[in-house]
Amino acid sequence: MTERRLTGRTVFLILASGFGVVIGVNAIMAALAVGTFPGLEARNPYVVSQTFDADRDAQLALGWEVSVTFDAGILRLSIFDASGMPVDPEVLQATLGRATHVRDDVAPEFRFDGTSHVAAADLAPGNWNLRFRAVAADGSEFRQRVVLYVDGRT
């Protein structure tokens, strides 16, 4: 059996190959991340920032508490005012989707059942975000993103 010598050239090729694999994988992952994530929440963040404090104060003054649940194909959005009474806002717009891409985004068609807003939904297991906008009777806007975890166990 002949003994192979470890030369400087071999060590260099081993190190270069290792770093090349790491850099290549990082480049591919970065390209996939940038290509699938929608990015900005607003088209013009500067304009949105000009009224942010006033909008936040008006929303907090409503005193609304929000929760979202999913069970047996029914998505339930519950909004309660500061006194614990259910709220049926003048306008309710919502988008349900994943945090990482817009491919699964849907606009649930909510109907108010006297206590909550309900909509039929077909959700795969995992994390979902419900982004919604509601307008109170006094014209105040309420915007919130609520995280919903759908358990895959039956």
What labels would you give this structure?
alpha+beta; 30% helix; 7 strands; 154 residues; 2 domains; four-stranded antiparallel beta sheet; Immunoglobulin-like
- CATH architectural group of the largest domain: Sandwich
- Give the CATH topology of the largest domain: Immunoglobulin-like
| Mean pLDDT across residues | 89
How would a crystallographer describe the biggest sheet? 4 strands, antiparallel
What is the tally of beta strands? 7
| Level-1 CATH class name of the largest domain | Mainly Beta
The residue fraction in helices comes out at 25-40%
Beta content: 25-35%
Order of strands, widest sheet: 1-2-5-4
Question: Radius of gyration over alpha carbons?
Answer: 25 Å
How many discrete domains? 2
Please outline what is shown here:
It contains 3 helices and 7 strands.
In words, what does this structure look like?
The protein has helices at 8-36, 45-50, 52-62; strands at 65-71, 74-80, 91-97, 111-112, 117-120, 126-135, 141-150. With 154 residues, the chain is of the alpha+beta class. It has two domains: 1-36; 45-150, Immunoglobulin-like. The chain has a four-stranded antiparallel sheet with strand order 1-2-5-4, with no helix packed on it. Strands 3-6-7 form a three-stranded antiparallel sheet. Strand 4 and strand 5 form a beta hairpin. The termini are far apart.
Layout of helices and strands:
Layout: H1 8-36, H2 45-50, H3 52-62, E1 65-71, E2 74-80, E3 91-97, E4 111-112, E5 117-120, E6 126-135, E7 141-150
Antiparallel strand pairs: 1-2, 2-5, 3-6, 4-5, 6-7
